[in-house]
């Protein structure tokens, strides 16, 4: 991602900023689209991973739909030009106002997460004289074997309708004249790197599909969610293994001729295409610890503070020295400027000897980075820079 020519270009740009490699994004999107094409799988990009309009423009142009979790995301998708008929609205807590807005926009489908939500949606659609298409999000109780904070498909999670409530759900659907059931929806978690987990999901999808068909429903859409992980430890391993991922669903789902399979990928599409570029403000060499204090912190990239997530950190200014092995390697705690002890990007990280003014890249920050930035400490809003501009 970083050629030496890029690094010198950063010298004149005020830090911190997100640097987006739009060529890499394009390559990732194309490889994903090519891997899905032989099976006619449909992809809805999960805007929550990154709703930056420049990226969305590229994602729309490749032909993907949009998976949204707020009226704001639905609006953003429409503004960027996604076809309304390729927009799905998911989320465990959609407000009446949000539902009304999405109904007015005639989106493709609501992924419904509770029986009460079905009732509310039916009522609001009736008031507008509309029929809303719905997919039922089922909690399949499949362990995604990922960080517990980003696991969503277990009985104890708040997401989806549990299997023991499905009979009541089916009755509510049948009694709701302003709803059209179109399919079933699942999402078991994020940053999934053990692809076998998806085989277990497929088994459950087949079971639930059969259950609905047995009750007389026509299941047109099998939406298996997202969650495919990226290689945070080796960011130069840029493209996730989309081929193997899609093949699992081809091999393990019992797909009927009238059925479409939908995916909601976020991180796998955008994760590797950005780095947080930041400058060392101060170096503090202590007796017990050495610190590099950066001008970006948890307010710009929250994942390490929130999930102890690993992001590879590179001192770009010393890259050449590392290559020639001239520099001394030192262990630093690499921290931000925020008044919180968890404002730390990495502890005891081996780096070349670093100096005030050195430029650092915090890699794999394209997903759940910029969009999770906060104003805490009344920080200035983080800026974005695109590879196509510099
Ligand atoms: N569909 C649903 C219903 C979801 O809840 C999510 C993510 C996705 C699709 C997209 O998942 P992906 O393909 O990006 O894994 N902030 C956390 C991740 C939260 C994921 C929330 N749901 C992080 O930084 O790791």
UniProtKB/TrEMBL annotation:
Residue sites binding substrate per the record: 267, 303, 307, 340, 368
Catalyzed reaction equations: meso-2,6-diaminopimelate + H(+) = L-lysine + CO2
Endpoints of the signal sequence: none
Keyword terms: Amino-acid biosynthesis, Decarboxylase, Lyase, Lysine biosynthesis, Pyridoxal phosphate
Residue span(s) of domain Orn/DAP/Arg decarboxylase 2 N-terminal: 38-270
A GO molecular function held by the record: pyridoxal phosphate binding
PROSITE patterns: ODR_DC_2_1 (PS00878), ODR_DC_2_2 (PS00879)
Broad enzyme group: lyase
Residues noted as binding pyridoxal 5'-phosphate in the record, renumbered to the chain: 227, 264-267, 368
Active site residues per record: 339
Positions carrying N6-(pyridoxal phosphate)lysine: 48
GO biological process terms on file: lysine biosynthetic process via diaminopimelate
Cofactor(s) required, per the database record: pyridoxal 5'-phosphate
Span of domain Orn/DAP/Arg decarboxylase 2 C-terminal: 17-366
Pfam family for this entry, one: Orn_Arg_deC_N
Subunit structure as annotated in this protein's UniProt entry: Homodimer.
Family as reported in the entry's similarity comment: Belongs to the Orn/Lys/Arg decarboxylase class-II family. LysA subfamily.
Task performed by this protein: Specifically catalyzes the decarboxylation of meso-diaminopimelate (meso-DAP) to L-lysine.
Name used for this protein in its record: Diaminopimelate decarboxylase
Gene label: lysA
């Amino acid at each position: 991602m970083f050629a030496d020519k890029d690094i010198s270009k950063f010298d004149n740009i005020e830090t911190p900023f997100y640097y987006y490699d739009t060529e890499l994004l394009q390559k990732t999107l194309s490889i994903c689209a090519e891997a899905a094409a032989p099976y006619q799988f449909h992809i809805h990009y999960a805007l929550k991973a990154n709703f930056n309009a420049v990226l969305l423009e590229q994602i729309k142009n490749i032909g993907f739909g949009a998976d949204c979790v707020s009226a704001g995301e639905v609006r953003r998708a429409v503004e960027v030009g996604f076809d309304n008929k390729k927009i799905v609205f998911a989320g465990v807590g959609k407000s009446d106002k949000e539902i009304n807005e999405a109904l007015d926009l005639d989106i493709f489908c609501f992924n419904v997460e509770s029986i009460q939500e079905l009732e509310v949606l039916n009522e609001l659609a009736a008031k507008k004289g509309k029929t809303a298409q719905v997919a039922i999000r089922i909690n399949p109780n499949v362990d995604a074997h990922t960080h517990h904070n980003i696991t969503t498909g277990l009985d104890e999670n708040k997401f989806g309708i549990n299997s023991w409530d499905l009979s009541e759900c089916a009755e509510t659907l049948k009694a709701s004249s302003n709803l059209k059931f179109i399919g079933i929806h699942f999402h078991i978690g994020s940053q999934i790197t053990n692809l076998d987990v998806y085989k277990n999901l497929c088994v459950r999808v087949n079971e639930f599909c059969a259950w609905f068909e047995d009750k007389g429903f026509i299941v047109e859409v099998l939406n298996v969610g997202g969650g495919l992980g990226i290689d945070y430890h080796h960011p130069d391993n840029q493209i996730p293994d989309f081929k193997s991922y899609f093949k699992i669903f081809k091999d393990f789902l019992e797909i009927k001729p009238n059925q479409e399979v939908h995916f909601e990928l976020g991180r796998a599409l955008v994760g590797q295409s950005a780095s947080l570029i930041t400058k060392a403000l101060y170096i503090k060499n202590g007796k017990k610890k050495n610190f590099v204090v950066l001008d970006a912190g948890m307010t710009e990239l929250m994942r390490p503070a929130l999930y102890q997530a690993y992001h590879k950190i590179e001192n770009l200014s010393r890259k050449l020295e590392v290559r020639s092995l001239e520099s001394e390697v030192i262990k630093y705690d690499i921290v931000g400027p925020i008044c919180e002890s968890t404002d730390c990007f990495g502890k005891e990280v081996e780096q070349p000897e670093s100096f005030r003014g050195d430029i650092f890249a915090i890699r794999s920050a394209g997903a759940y980075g910029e969009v999770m930035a906060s104003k805490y400490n009344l920080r200035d809003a983080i800026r974005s820079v695109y590879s196509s501009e510099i």
